[in-house]
Amino acid sequence: MDKLAQYRTYIEQILREYSAYKPSYGEVEVEIVIDHLHDHYQLLTVGWNKHQRIHGTLLHIDIRDGKIWIQQDGTEEGVANRFVAQGVPKTDIVLGFQPPYKRPYTDFATG
Hints:
Layout lengths: L2 H17 L7 E9 L4 E10 L2 E13 L2 E7 L5 H7 L7 E3 L16
Parallel strand pairs: 4-5
Antiparallel strand pairs: 1-2, 2-3, 3-4
């Protein structure tokens, strides 16, 4: 399996795993959004908690120029660590939620 296909598989596995966890409050659903054509992947929370609307992005991951870009990570463990544990080199992971000037100080790719 080529590198990009493997990265897509890793991303989808992580999204499916996290989608199994349902919020303990309100009537909230967890939705997976996958756009294979443009390599965009998201995990959303959608619903209501009493009279408050819940709509947010828990995870947003893209593949750009052969690298995994983590745009939003609302997990406790950090999905970058999951990718590294699966064998993805840190040079292929960009913490897109970090400002560009901070990225050189992380152990991950700058872009």
